[in-house]
Here is the input.
Amino acid sequence: MKTSLTSAAGPKAAARRAAPSAPRRTANDAATATALKLFVVLARAQRAIAERTEASLAAHGFTSTEFGILEALFHKGPLLLGDVQRKILVSSGGITFLVDRLADRGLVERKPCPSDRRARYAALTRKGEALMTAIFPGHADAIREAVSGLTRAEQRQATALLRQLGVAAAGGLDAPLRRR
Here is the structure.
């Protein structure tokens, strides 16, 4: 007695055999596969580093965005709200909300801009300055540990490559394709 392959192997095996085959790869697919791999590896590395460093911030009651504002003001001094917004990559409404939250905690204050009545500076208060002086070294240590999988020379090389990648990506579709 003869059995068909469908009945012997089961309906799932028959369905797999009947499914259309994967599209054929073209010469351009190798470049696409490499780009996709880089994107995934870069995203996973960023996520792993962020998770480690965010834990140190959460211990002090801050989100990474709130701490980003404090860190920018700590290292750069008073900044126009628009400049803070661009440095930490949030919307204009988002920066207002976040600065308000930090001001409510007594860490940041708004100051008028002498040359533009519409503009406002954000600045650390004495309390904010003291807090950052106390907690920033521990945060820097957490970052150093999170990226310690690379040597210092490799970290410098990665920084240069990622800066080059970011500048090219920011150029959008009009940026020339430099390498294949």
